[in-house]
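Lecture notes, part 5. Sequence design as translation. It can be helpful to think of inverse folding as translation between two languages: the language of shapes and the language of residues. The source text, in structure tokens, appears below.
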């Protein structure tokens, strides 16, 4: 067993061998931190403390990418001996356990970063002190920021180390790093495309895809987690230089670094010495990795064929088979580095192509019946139906307002199942026979929520015949006037709820509103808001949904909650049948 002293000597020896890397990072961080601080403080007319706060600490987002890159570089340089059979034989011939050697290499390459980086942060603070910008709070924030960036480094370092342990040469290590960083985001993008393109998916009602833009991508790799840092529970209160990291966020970084480091150690223990120079250190993983990469690549090419040769299943099949086979052959060439062996494992090609075909055409033709799902009418307790794009806010149970589909459908539930079921039948049948995304002018995209008596809720997005949609809603509002009150929240407003009513109308839209030019704009004076609101509510209550729906203009209402937000206005329909409203608008336009 190696003593503590010999371990220290081993670390010092390794550090001396990588002193060039420490010197390189010292120059980099000196230019990045203290030199930048000095340049900023040299501007005399600015407050020194404000300048220092903007030059150090949590505000310097560009420091993180540099630290992440150096984490990868240090891991590659520290364990580069794994690529050389000669060096590997030499190291493994030493009377040192693999665990000890791993720890010494790990610590030595870590020190090449932490010493220059810590010194640069300290020099940045001292530069500020020389200009009279010293602050205990700022110093504490810089210390915490330094710890956070060191953890960023360890996350990148340990993830790169896993790639090093799995591979036997630099080329495949670099490719493995790219796979670790891009594979899960690619799967998310592919899944998002398939769901929205081929399934009757109701936007905003499924937590997985509704949040995939940021929260899922953030957890696809340690690098993504660090790049997207500051968009969740990992940040806390605001300090002098930015938002402090929360204790939970720091614990997450520690956990990621520790787990990946332990994984690297386990892989290093079981890594065979003769794997140096080979593509992969563990030959049994070759087929699994090849198939896992070939399937998404084939799916990407299938999407290209689908977009280019729309509705051509033959071309999609050809692209999947052709590019799936070519990618498997390329992977085999990288493994063997011999063009004669690219067809060594033909079953890898067969499995990859078969899986890609199953996934693509399974979504494309809705093999599992997602689109055609339609509960029996007697199984339903309520249904909510609403056209895709809401142009006005709806109230929520929390007292706020929303245009989000999920909350909107909650608000518009109706127990008059029989009146709305025909719309759902039409949508499910069209989704079953025609798929989604037809964009016919006689169809309307509607969101539907089924509330089953069992308590289960299911949401879908259908293309339905506009006549079926309009007639269903018209009949519902005639039999249940309270539903119209919910469907058009403006019916419950009072004069005190609004601050502005306005509209821009073209001369051919409203017959009774004379526009001298091609278009005219009407802004209702404050004293007339109540009169216009009352007239509009009277028209809205009197007219049928069909008359309202086919209106060709809009009247904008801005509520007190929307005041001061230029792009927030509730746009309600306005047509020639709105006699009372147009009469007042005509008078205002003439004044």
């Amino acid at each position: 067993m190696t003593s503590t002293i010999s371990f220290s000597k081993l670390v010092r020896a390794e550090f001396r061998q990588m002193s060039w890397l420490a010197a390189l990072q010292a120059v980099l961080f000196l230019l990045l931190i203290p030199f930048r601080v000095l340049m900023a403080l040299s501007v005399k007319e600015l407050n020194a403390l404000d300048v220092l706060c903007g030059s150090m600490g949590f505000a310097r987002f560009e420091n993180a990418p540099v630290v992440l890159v150096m984490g990868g570089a240090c891991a590659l340089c520290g364990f580069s001996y794994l690529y050389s059979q000669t060096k590997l034989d030499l190291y493994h011939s030493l009377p040192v356990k693999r665990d000890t050697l791993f720890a010494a290499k790990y610590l030595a390459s870590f020190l090449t970063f932490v010493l220059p980086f810590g010194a640069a942060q300290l020099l940045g603070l001292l530069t500020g002190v020389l200009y009279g910008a010293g602050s205990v709070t700022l110093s504490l924030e810089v210390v915490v920021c330094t710890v956070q960036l060191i953890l960023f480094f360890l996350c990148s370092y340990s993830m790169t180390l896993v790639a090093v342990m799995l591979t036997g040469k630099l080329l495949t290590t670099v490719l493995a790093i790219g796979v670790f960083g891009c594979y899960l985001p690619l799967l998310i993008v592919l899944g998002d495309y398939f769901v929205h393109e081929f399934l009757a998916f109701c936007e905003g009602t499924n937590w997985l895809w509704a949040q995939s833009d940021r929260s899922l991508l953030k957890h696809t790799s340690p690098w993504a987690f660090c790049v997207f840092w500051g968009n969740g529970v990992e940040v806390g209160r605001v300090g002098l230089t930015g938002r402090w990291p929360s204790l939970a966020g720091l614990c997450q970084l520690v956990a990621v670094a520790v787990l990946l480091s332990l994984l690297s150690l386990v892989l290093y223990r079981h890594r065979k010495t003769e794997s140096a120079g080979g593509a992969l250190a563990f030959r049994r993983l070759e087929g699994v990795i090849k198939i896992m990469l070939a399937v998404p690549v084939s799916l990407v090419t299938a999407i290209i064929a689908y977009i280019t040769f729309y509705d051509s299943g033959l071309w999609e099949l050809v692209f999947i088979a052709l590019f799936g086979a070519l990618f498997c052959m390329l992977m085999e060439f990288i493994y063997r580095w011999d063009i004669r062996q690219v067809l060594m494992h033909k079953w890898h090609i067969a499995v990859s192509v078969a899986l890609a075909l199953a996934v693509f055409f399974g979504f494309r033709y809705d093999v599992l019946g997602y689109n055609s799902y339609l509960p029996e009418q007697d199984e339903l307790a309520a249904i909510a139906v609403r056209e895709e794009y809401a142009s006005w806010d709806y109230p929520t149970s929390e007292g706020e307002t929303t245009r989000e589909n999920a909350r909107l459908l909650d608000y518009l539930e109706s127990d008059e199942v029989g009146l709305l079921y025909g719309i759902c039948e039409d949508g499910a049948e069209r989704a079953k026979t025609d798929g989604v995304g037809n964009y016919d002018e006689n169809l309307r995209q509607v969101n539907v929520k089924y509330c089953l008596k069992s308590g289960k809720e299911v949401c879908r997005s259908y293309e339905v015949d506009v006549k079926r949609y309009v007639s269903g809603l018209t009949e519902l509002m005639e039999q249940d006037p309270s539903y119209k009150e919910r469907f058009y929240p403006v019916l419950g407003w009072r004069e005190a709820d609004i601050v502005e009513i306005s509209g821009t109308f073209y001369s051919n839209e409203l017959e009774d509103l004379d526009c001298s030019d091609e278009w005219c704009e009407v802004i209702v004076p404050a004293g007339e808001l109540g009169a216009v609101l009352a007239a509009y509510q009277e028209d809205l209550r009197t007219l049928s949904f069909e008359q309202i729906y086919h209106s060709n203009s809009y009247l904008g209402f801005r509520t007190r909650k929307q005041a001061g937000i230029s792009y927030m206005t509730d746009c309600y329909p306005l047509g020639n049948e709105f006699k009372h409203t147009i009469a007042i608008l005509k008078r205002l336009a003439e004044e």
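The translated text above is only one of many valid answers, since several sequences can fold into similar shapes. The chain is about 60% helix and 10% strand.
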